[in-house]
Design brief:
CATH topology: Sufe protein. Chain: A
Number of domains: 1
Helix content: 40-55%
Structural class: alpha+beta
Distance between the termini: 67 Å
CATH class: Alpha Beta
Strand content: 15-25%
CATH architecture: Alpha-Beta Complex
Largest sheet: 4 strands, antiparallel
Length: 159
């Protein structure tokens, strides 16, 4: 067989393995979410990683705002699994911000995910939650055109 065909077959097999492992990770996510949902409301925070590892935090919250269960998933590959974070149990979610000593002990990506979960929970609790995209896609032409127009308006007003 030709080397190109063998290389193409290897790429296709690797892609299929990645899909299967991704589905397995999604199933694990859903299982952990279901268990936490039975305990109370669940606040989910994330810090997606392009090159660095991505991080997801799930916090089960009772009616008073105390954390009943806390788990994190952090990693670059689809082999990452959820791990317990017992230090956050019985903490008030309203105080899990960048000034909290427990949050500050964690790595930066985990800090961002915890703060994202807290912010999402607080906005939902206040009834002012709206889905906000944090990063614009390179293919979002409408966003880029509006951004360019506003830049020209700013520069025009300077002169």
């Amino acid at each position: 067989m030709d080397r190109v065909i063998i290389f193409a077959i290897i790429i296709i097999i690797a892609y299929l393995v990645q899909i299967l492992l991704g589905l397995r990770q999604l199933k694990h996510f859903n299982q952990v979410y279901s268990v936490m949902r039975k305990k109370g409301r669940v606040a989910i925070g994330r810090r997606s990683g392009k090159i660095k590892s991505g991080t997801i935090v799930m916090l089960a919250i009772d009616e008073k705002g105390l954390v009943l269960d806390a788990q994190k998933m952090q990693g670059v590959t689809v082999a990452a699994k959820f791990q317990q974070m017992p230090q956050f149990i019985n903490q008030d979610i309203h105080y899990l911000d960048s000034y909290n000593s427990l949050v500050r002990k964690e790595n930066r990506l985990l800090q961002i995910a915890i703060e994202d979960a807290r912010d999402l929970f607080v906005r939902t609790e206040a009834g002012s939650y709206q889905e906000v995209t944090k990063y614009a896609s390179a293919f979002d032409i409408d966003f880029h055109v509006k951004n360019l127009v506003s830049r020209f308006k700013i520069q025009k007003n300077k002169f």
